[in-house]
Specification:
Order of helices and strands: EEEEEHEEEHEEE
Number of helices: 2
Strand content: 35-45%
Number of strands: 11
Structural class: mainly beta
Number of domains: 1
CATH topology: M1 Pyruvate Kinase, Domain 3
Largest sheet: 7 strands, mixed, barrel
Shape: globular
CATH superfamily: PK beta-barrel domain-like
Helix content: under 10%
Length: 147
């Protein structure tokens, strides 16, 4: 893969509320070095401050007869590009924001609320955690570039 190659786009954006009541769909997100502004995980763990998932995760669930709405995996950014193969420390740009991959998303027991099989099914395909290298806004439709 060449550097600075556009690989996809942002489909949806989400934040989690502090009261755990629901996920909120947003038209834009502001990210800084502490994470996604107004998200309940803001300024908690910078290496896990932004979760990116791919629509491919939802397709995998659907192949196992589990239909879930976008946002159910806890992602902040849902893309039409599957980034799960990218290595730790790889940087990507979305809109004006630069993110650095810090780890693959770990197995999450909260997914059992959706379906008991879901954590095992998406063990390696739920998403990636990133930290913010360059602050700014991300909008639905922004292009994703591998740096």
């Amino acid at each position: 893969m060449k550097s600075n190659q556009i690989v996809g786009k942002v489909i949806k954006l989400f934040i989690s509320q502090a009261d755990n009541s629901s996920r909120i769909t947003k038209e834009k997100l502001y990210l800084d070095n502490a994470g996604v502004l107004t998200d309940k995980f803001y300024n908690k763990d910078i290496n896990r401050s932004v979760l990116i998932s791919s629509h491919e995760s939802y397709n995998i669930a659907l192949k196992h007869n589990i239909s879930i709405e976008y946002g159910a995996l806890g992602e902040n950014i849902l893309t039409d590009y599957n980034p799960y193969h990218l290595p730790v420390e790889k940087q990507i740009q979305i809109g004006e924001v630069i993110l650095e991959i810090t780890q693959n998303c770990t197995l999450c027991k909260s997914l059992t609320k959706v379906d008991n099989k879901l954590p095992k099914i998406l063990k390696d395909d739920r998403g990636i955690f990133t930290k913010v290298v360059k602050s700014g806004y991300i909008y639905i439709g922004d292009e994703i570039t591998i740096l």
